[in-house]
Amino acid sequence: MQQETETANAILVWSGEYMVDGCGFEVLINDKKYKPENEQDIDGAFKVEGNTPVVIEFVRLGTQLDIRCGLSTQSRAMDAIRVVSVKRK
């Protein structure tokens, strides 16, 4: 089944590398957080502290990703997306 791609204005949030207690990328669309399941495909140029306004093309995966990162043991489950493309706004 072909999943539909969507395009949205979003905020790309970089919280740091996992190996140094960061939580990688999160995507904020209409005040809702999403976790890219293919965040390693996002260009390293977006790895800057804070929020980057972007236009993102993505596919909703219909599942949740629960990434435990940093020193936290609490669930950070978010709806999963697959990023197709990201462009700075």
Shape, principal axes of CA atoms: globular
Please count the helical segments: 0
* CATH class (first level) name: Mainly Beta
- Known CATH architecture: Beta Barrel
Instruction: Please name the fourth-level CATH homologous superfamily.
Output: NigD-like N-terminal OB domain
Report the biggest beta sheet as strand number plus sense, adding barrel if it closes: 5 strands, mixed, barrel
Oligomer: single chain
Q: Span between N and C termini? A: 31 Å
Describe, in plain words, how this protein is organized in 3D.
With 89 residues, the protein is an all-beta fold. The chain has one domain (5-88): NigD-like N-terminal OB domain (OB fold (Dihydrolipoamide Acetyltransferase, E2P), Beta Barrel). The protein is 0% helix and 53% strand. The chain is built from no helices and 5 strands. The chain has a 5-stranded mixed barrel. A hairpin with a 2-residue loop joins strand 2 and strand 3 (32-36). The chain is globular, with a radius of gyration of 13 Å. The mean pLDDT is 91.
